[in-house]
Write a structure and sequence with these properties.
- With 132 residues, the chain is mainly beta.
- It has one domain.
- The chain is 0% helix and 49% strand.
- The strands form two sheets. Strands 1, 3, 4, 6, 7, 9, 11, 13 and 15 form a nine-stranded parallel β-sheet that branches. It has a six-stranded parallel β-sheet with strand order 2-5-8-10-12-14, with no helix packed on it.
- It is globular.
Amino acid sequence: MWLGKKKPPPIRGLVGEGMVVRGEVQFSDGLRIDGEVHGDVTAVNDGPSIVVISEKARVYGKVRAGHVIINGEVHGPIVSDEVLELQPRARVTGDIRYELLEMHQGALVDGELKPLKSTEKPTLKLAASNEA
């Protein structure tokens, strides 16, 4: 979901299934996590970034990237500067900040969901409204 503007960055890093990483993980471009990370996971490049937390993965720490896709467990805050996708098996314990949010049926969040933009409420206009 890159809004038709550009291709997602390549996934160059992998925390494999059965692997346990203790400490901060910093990455450029893309990272896929199938194992366990005990520490913060942070994109460090200025360009687009993506982190994929698969169904079997667990992260105990803060997650920050442009595009964040979660189908596993995250125990800590999440900041997504572009798009956050919470897939059906996502389990998040922690506050979430996002630019755009896509949440599938079945995903669970125990925390606060807040957009990154200002706190002013958007004005909604109904398509079926008779107002001009």
